[in-house]
Amino acid sequence: MVDRLANSEANTRRISIVENCFGAAGQPLTIPGRVLIGEGVLTKLCRKKPKARQFFLFNDILVYGNIVIQKKKYNKQHIIPLENVTIDSIQDEGDLRNGWLIKTPTKSFAVYAATATEKSEWMNHINKCVSDLLSKSGKTPSNEHAAVWVPDSEATVCMRCQKAKFTPVNRRHHCRKCGFVVCGPCSEKRFLLPSQSSKPVRICDFCYDLLSTGEMAACQSSRSDSYSQSPKSSLNDVSDDDDDEDSSD
User: Which CDD domains does UniProt cross-reference here (predicted)?
Assistant: First the structure.
């Protein structure tokens, strides 16, 4: 079906509409063989709070952006190559229901659908697109992914020293390796994580010690395993005191 749609006028028209909704600031989306599979509004768990974002699933990329005018205008376009994506379902808890993780080497975050059926459809379509891409390219699924950041609201004290209380003066920071909310003294070091940034990024002392001794796998699993058991927990190299969606995400 995807192959039949690839060169159809209807598909070209639909992609053109999406391009126009992002305006001049968005990247061109029309390329040979690209098909728009589906679209919809998902709730993305951001650093400060959950926020509605418009998502577009293509057969090779996942695109999302801020909603300015529904169905008419979006901004802050983000494009994620699907061959680098892995997804994991997360358990319902409180108001956060029907969610799953979208994990890539550069950025990982949680999203939530309005219904269980919608969640199932999104996950099935994403998995199918990823599977088809990997099958065609002969590549293997990515086994490296960025940490999902713990939202600010989940930590009143530093998650490493368990002592420093956060205040307007003592700001929250995020370790780029484990995603924990940490205080300044516990995250003074920088380390080069090539998949996330071309320059050294902030990491906590715990992860720095592991990375320095080559125990990167342990550092990675310390965050991802705990998140898989609890959805109360969003990545890019952004300013620590900015919401990841209100600035550069």
Answer: FYVE_PKHF2, PH_Phafin2-like
* 3-class DSSP state of 210: helix
The yes or no reply on domain 1-137 and CATH 2.30.29.30 is yes
Is a pLDDT exceeding 70 seen at residue 53? yes
Question: Phi and psi at residue 19, in whole multiples of 5°?
Answer: -55, -45
Q: Which CATH class is domain 152-213?
A: alpha beta
The structure's pTM equals: 0.82
The angle subtended at Cα 201 by Cα 22 and Cα 111, nearest 5°, is 45
Residue 65 near residue 76 (C-beta atoms within 8 A): yes
Among 82, 60, 63, residue whose Cα is nearest residue 19: 63
Extended beta strands in 17-70, E state: 36-45, 50-58, 61-69
pLDDT score at 142? 79
What does the pLDDT read at residue 208?
95
Q: Can 1-137 and 152-213 be said to share one CATH topology?
A: no
pLDDT at 180 over 80: yes
The predicted-structure confidence for 98-137, as pLDDT tens digits, reads as follows 999 999 999 999 999 999 999 999 999 999 999 999 999 8
Q: CA dist 188 to 20, 194, 201, 203, Å? A: 43, 19, 10, 7
Q: Which residues contact 236 (CB under 8 A, 6 or more apart)?
A: 106, 107, 196, 244, 248, 249
